[in-house]
């Protein structure tokens, strides 16, 4: 720990931002961005007085533009700060607003780190009660840059119940603990599929994997979200499920955990 902190500037909070919560996963495709977006919306829906933002720090594979139905360009204000784009009352910033959806970003780690620093510190975020950061998967440069640039109030780790995903989720949780970021708990996603025709329930990616990891690492399970067509459809169409169907059972888990947050 001491070695990592050596020579680095002290962490400084983002002006006007009260709480920063990161949503992370060990693997890609487990529902991290879906969770981040619905968590942000649920926080805002639950308390209209609260202002919420989403920072998409997944520079190589930004999902927020599509999920929040937003497109660039991004403008710079008089103070030289990037102006976030807003939908559903949520301020959003993503590299995807500044690049073409179809062209890959071919960058080295240093460029990624400086882009993330810019999106943290040079965006007109203030005032915000919560900034939800959608992290890239894994435990690399981007994750460390974030953890070492700003104080993070908590990390939420998303995983499917599959062993391979849980192994990586454990690494993620351990990385945050190493850099003194409190891990708020685990979100188990895609745990069960219920056939809409016959009601048969199938645990496609396994069952209870997250609970076991939770027990081993003394982490709470914050939500258990089923695999459901409406979650996929609403994510892809930029109308996240918390907005389109706040009463749906798929949302309950997510909402419950937001209310306890
Ligand atoms: P990640 O951020 O971990 O890469 P995403 O949130 O982008 O994962 O999810 C990957 C894909 O899976 C998306 O198309 C999303 O709509 C879909 N998805 C995520 N969670 C669910 C779920 N519980 N049920 C159905 N589809 C889901």
Question: How would you characterize this protein structure?
Answer:
With 261 residues, this protein is α/β, with parallel strands linked by helices. It has one domain: Rossmann fold (3-Layer(aba) Sandwich). It has 10 helices and 9 strands. Strands 1, 2, 3, 4, 5, 6, 7, 8 and 9 form a 9-stranded mixed beta sheet that branches. Helix 4 (109-121) runs parallel beside helix 5 (141-149). The longest helix is centred in the middle third of the chain and has 16 residues, at 163-178. The protein starts with a helix and ends with a helix. 45% of the residues are buried. Mean pLDDT is 87; it is low at 1-5. The protein binds adenosine-5'-diphosphate. Adenosine-5'-diphosphate (ADP) is lined by residues 25, 28-34, 63, 189-190, 225, 227-228, 231-232, 235-236.
Give a topology summary.
Layout: H1 2-5, E1 17-25, H2 32-46, E2 52-56, H3 64-67, E3 85-87, E4 90-94, H4 109-121, E5 128-134, H5 141-149, E6 154-159, H6 163-178, E7 183-194, E8 201-202, H7 209-217, E9 221-227, H8 229-236, H9 241-244, H10 249-260
Parallel strand pairs: 1-5, 1-6, 2-4, 2-5, 6-7, 7-9
Antiparallel strand pairs: 3-4, 7-8
Bound molecules: adenosine-5'-diphosphate (ADP).
Cofactor: [4Fe-4S] cluster
Function: Iron-sulfur cluster transfer protein involved in the assembly of the mitochondrial membrane respiratory chain NADH dehydrogenase (Complex I). May deliver one or more Fe-S clusters to complex I subunits.
GO molecular function: 4 iron, 4 sulfur cluster binding; ATP binding; ATP-dependent FeS chaperone activity; metal ion binding
């Amino acid at each position: 720990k001491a070695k990592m902190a050596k020579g680095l500037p002290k962490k400084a909070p983002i002006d006007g931002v009260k709480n920063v919560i990161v949503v992370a996963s060990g693997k890609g495709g487990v529902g991290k961005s879906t969770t981040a977006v619905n968590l942000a919306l649920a926080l805002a829906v639950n308390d209209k007085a609260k202002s919420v933002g989403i920072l998409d720090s997944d520079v190589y594979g930004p999902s927020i533009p599509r999920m929040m139905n937003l497109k660039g360009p991004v403008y710079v204000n008089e103070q030289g700060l990037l102006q976030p784009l807003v939908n559903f009352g949520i301020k959003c910033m993503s590299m995807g607003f500044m690049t073409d959806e179809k062209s890959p970003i071919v960058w080295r780690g240093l460029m990624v780190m400086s882009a993330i620093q810019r999106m943290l510190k040079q965006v007109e975020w203030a005032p915000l009660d919560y900034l939800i950061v959608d992290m890239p998967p894994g435990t690399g440069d981007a994750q460390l840059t974030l953890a070492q640039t700003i104080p993070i109030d908590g990390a939420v780790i998303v995983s499917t119940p599959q062993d391979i995903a849980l192994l990586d989720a454990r690494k993620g949780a351990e990385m945050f603990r190493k850099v003194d970021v409190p891990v708020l708990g685990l979100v188990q996603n895609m745990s069960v599929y219920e056939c809409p025709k016959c009601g048969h329930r199938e645990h496609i990616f396994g069952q209870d994997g997250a609970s076991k990891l939770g027990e081993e690492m003394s982490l709470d399970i914050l939500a258990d979200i089923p695999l459901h067509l409406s979650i996929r459809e609403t994510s892809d169409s930029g109308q996240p499920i918390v907005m389109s169907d706040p009463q749906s059972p798929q949302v309950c888990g997510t909402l419950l955990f937001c209310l306890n947050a």
